[in-house]
Amino acid sequence: TVNQEKTFLGHPRALFILFFTEMWERFSFYGMKALLIFYLTKYHLFSDDSGNLLIGSYAALVYAVPVIGGFIADKYLGFRKAIVFGGIMLVLGHLGMAYEGNAATQSVTGEITRDNLALQVFYFSLALIILGVGFLKANISSLVGELYEVGDKRRDSGFTLFYMGINLGSFLATIICVWLGEAYGWSYGFGAAGVGMFFGLLTFISGKKLLMGKGESTNPVFLEKKSLGLKNEWIIYILSVLSTLIFWQMVQNHSAVSLALQIAGGASFIYIVYYAITQLDGKAREQLIALTILIVFTIVFWALFEQAYTSMNLFADRILDRHIFGIELSAGQFLSFNALFIILLAPIFAWLWVKMGRYNPNTAVKFSLALMLVGLGFGALVMGINVSGLGKVAAIWLILAYLLHTCGELSLSPVGLSAVTKLSPSKIVGFMMGVWFLATASSEFIASVLANIASVDTSNGLAPDLNIAKQSYLKLFEYLFYTGIGFGVILLVLSPIIKKLMHGVDKELNN
Ligand code: GLN
C-alpha cells in the first residue's frame, strides 16, 4: 500500500506539533521553576529549608499526578483531549503566578510579615500547574509513541527529537524568563511562562488535523453519555478542577506529600510483585523484575540531578563568580547549560549507541554510568570550592558539573523511557510509565531534603558569609559525590545479573 502520510524531516508532521507544544509547556515549566527558589527566599523571605521543601513537595506532585492523568486518558478522555485540558489549566496556573502581591518584610527584631493573600494565590497557582502537567506530560509522550506503528525504526529518533524539543523550551525559558524576572520583576518572568504556555496550547489546537485522528478517546460513547444531566466528559473536567483544592492544601503540607509518596510507592511495588507472581512467568517475569530494579536506581539519580533547582541554584547565586567571557549571567541562567548540552549532545549519544554495535553497553551499565557521572558532577563542584581560596568559585566548575550531569541524563533518561516500553508486559506499559515518573516524584522530594544539608541561615536578613556558605555546600556536594559513585558501583556489580533478567531485550534499544 502507498503511505499517504506526509512527512517532514522523515517524520510524521504531527511530531512537530507535539515538539512545539511540549517545547512551550517545558518553557513555562522550567522558566517558572528556575525563578522559584529565589522568589521564595528573596521575595517571601522563606528560609532555605522551607523554600527547598516547598519546591520538593510541588515538584513531587507534578511528577506523581501524571500517573492519574495517564490513567484517565487511557480509560476515558484519550490523549488529545487530556492534553488540551492540561494546557488550559497550565495557562491559568502560570498566569496566576504573575500576581505577586506584596513582598515580605522583616522588622529589626527579626519578625517577618508576609502577604498571605499573595501566598495563597501562589499555592493555588501551583495546584493548577500540578493538575495541568498531570494531564499533559505523560500523555503527550504517549502520543509521540502513537505516531509510529509497532516496529517503526523511526521511533527512537522521533523520541530523541522530542527530547530536544523539551530542552529547547527549557533553554529559552532559563534565559528569557530569568532575565525578565530579574530585570523587570517576578510578574514578568512568571507571566512570560504563562504566555509561552498559551502559544503551546494554540499550537496544539491548531494542529489537530495533522494528528489524523490519533490520540482520540477509546470510549467516545461513555464521554457523550449523561449522568446527573451532565455529559461524563464534563464531569471528569469538573472533578479534576475540584482536585486542585487537594493539591492546594498538599503543597503547603510537606509531610502529607511524603506520606502520599510512600503509600503510592509501596502500593505500586506490591502490585508489581503480585502481577509478576500471578500473571507472568519465565522471561516476562524476569524482565519486569529487571525493570523494577532499574527504576529503583533512577530514584537516586534524579535525587542528585534535581539539586539544580534548589541547592545548585542558590550556590550559583551566593558563591559563584558568574562571569563567563566577560558577561555576567544570573544564577538561574546557569540552568540553561543543562538544556544546551542536551540539544548538542542528544544526537551524538543516539548515534554513538548505534555505532557501538555489539559493544553498546546494556541498560544497567548505562544507568550505572549515569550515577557515576552525576556523582562526578558534584566532584567538580567540590574541586571548584577547594581551589577557590578566599574568593568566589569560578563559573567553569558549575558548567563542568552540568556537562557531567547532562551526560548522565542522556545515559539514563531517553534510554530509560525506551526500556520501560520494551521490558513491561504490554498490558501494563502505561502503568509502568506512571511508575517511572512516580520514581522521579520521590526523587524530587528526597532532593529537597538533601538540599537542606546545605541550608544557610539567612534569618538575620543579611547576605550569608561567603566562607560559612562555602562550607555548607562543600559538605552537601561531597556527600552527593560519594552517593553517586557508590550507587553507580553497586549497580555495575549487579549489572550482569540484571542483564540476564532482561533476556537480550535491550539489545534492540536505541537502534
Ligand atoms: N528533563 C526531562 C523533562 O522535563 C526529564 C524529567 C524527568 O524525568 N525527571 O521531561
TrEMBL record:
Membrane spanning stretches: 52-73, 82-99, 119-140, 161-181, 187-205, 234-251, 257-276, 288-305, 334-354, 366-388, 394-417, 429-454, 479-498
Keyword Metal-binding attached: no
Annotated membrane topology: Multi-pass membrane protein
Keyword terms: Cell membrane, Membrane, Peptide transport, Protein transport, Transmembrane, Transmembrane helix, Transport
Cross-referenced Pfam families: PTR2
This protein's record includes keyword Protein transport: yes
Stored Gene3D superfamilies: MFS general substrate transporter like domains
InterPro entries assigned: Dipep/tripep_permease (IPR005279), MFS_trans_sf (IPR036259), MFS_Transporters (IPR050171), POT_fam (IPR000109), PTR2_symporter_CS (IPR018456)
Matches recorded under CDD domains: MFS_DtpA_like
Signal sequence region: none
Intracellular or extracellular location(s): Cell membrane; Membrane
Top-level taxon of the source organism: Bacteria
Family: Belongs to the major facilitator superfamily. Proton-dependent oligopeptide transporter (POT/PTR) (TC 2.A.17) family.
NCBIfam families documented for this protein: yjdL_sub1_fam (TIGR00924)
PANTHER family linked: PROTON-DEPENDENT OLIGOPEPTIDE FAMILY TRANSPORT PROTEIN, RESISTANCE PROTEIN MDTM, PUTATIVE-RELATED-RELATED
Record protein name field: Peptide MFS transporter
